[in-house]
Amino acid sequence: MLAVKQTVDSEEAAIQSHTGRSMISVKDLSLVFETNDGPVNALSNINLQVNEGDFVSFIGPSGCGKTTLLRVIADLEQATAGEIKVDGTSPKDARLNRLYGYVFQAPGLLPWRTISQNCALPMEISGQPGEHQQKQIDKYLKMVGLQDFHKKFPWQLSGGMQQRASIARALCINPELLLMDEPFGALDEITRDHMNMELLRIWQETKKTVIFVTHSIAEAVLLSTHIVVMSPRPGRIVKVIESPLPRLKTLALRDQAAFHELASEIRNALANDHAID
Ligand SMILES: Nc1ncnc2c1ncn2[C@@H]1O[C@H](COP(=O)(O)OP(=O)(O)OP(=O)(O)O)[C@@H](O)[C@H]1O
After folding, report:
1. Span from the CA of 274 to the centroid of ligand 1 (angstroms)
2. How many whole angstroms separate alpha carbon 95 and alpha carbon 40?
């Protein structure tokens, strides 16, 4: 018997609340890409509830639609059918109101701008006053441990430091929601461990809601309050698992039975849907 408090099957894929406020609500959502080769069914009948303060990981095989779902939440793709609300509004309004910050796999920092100037960019675009920009930059560069590197250019920093700068850039607009697409996928294991712990600390400190795309079962277990297991294309939600582990986790947790039991629960959900052999 696995030590998982609660699992919810795809039919009722609902994530239980900690605060009660719905941050993302997805109902019967499907998305078909029209291509030269014919239609590509990327997402099929997705139902999902994410509440304020949750840390939700999407995990599934390559091409199952994790990024597409993230992009629908961010209003970068349009659903073909179904409904989606982000903090009670349309994804478009959520985007226009700068409700979310987006962190990509590659840091995407502009090489001709310093770290400070890179962090300023989204605030410049939204016309925020210079004094406020500086306050936000100081606050979040300190939070990610880069306060002494604000004058450096991206190419003068390591990959992990660049990714921390991109997280600071996303946080500078003070979004309710952090959308992260495999942000640590390109990092070595030691740096990734460090970044995972840093992210947990930042999440605790800022109380943001986080949606996190990953290929790593261990990373999903280490970070998440909820794990959304997806099937191969067309992407469906196979299972939503609420983690029985504490919200404040340490790397030492990886040696404990509860960690392995949860990892095994995820692995089984993936395998049962032929996502992995
Ligand atoms: N703009 C697009 N036009 C056509 N097909 C697309 C487009 N974007 C994504 N797809 C297809 O939709 C499916 C889902 O892609 P998506 O990138 O969301 O998967 P993923 O789970 O994030 O994959 P990975 O883990 O490899 O990053 C794939 O088959 C992909 O080829």
Report:
1. 18
2. 26
63 lines ligand 1 (CB under 6 A): yes
User: In this predicted complex, what is the ipTM?
Assistant: 0.97
* CATH superfamily name and code, 7-99+175-272: P-loop containing nucleotide triphosphate hydrolases (3.40.50.300)
Q: Give the residue among 276, 189, 195 at the shortest CA–CA distance from 232.
A: 276
- Global confidence as pTM: 0.89
**61 CA to centre of ligand 1 in angstroms:** 11
Reported as half-sphere exposure (CB side, CA atoms, 13 A), residue 203 has a value of 25
pLDDT of residue 5: 38
pLDDT (tens digit per residue) in 17-64: 456 789 999 999 999 999 998 999 999 999 999 999 999 999 999 999
Test site for ligand 1: of 32, 59, 62, 67, most ligand atoms within 8 A of the Cβ:
67
Name every residue whose Cβ is closer than 8 Å to that of residue 204 and which is 6 or more positions away in sequence.
Answer: 247, 248
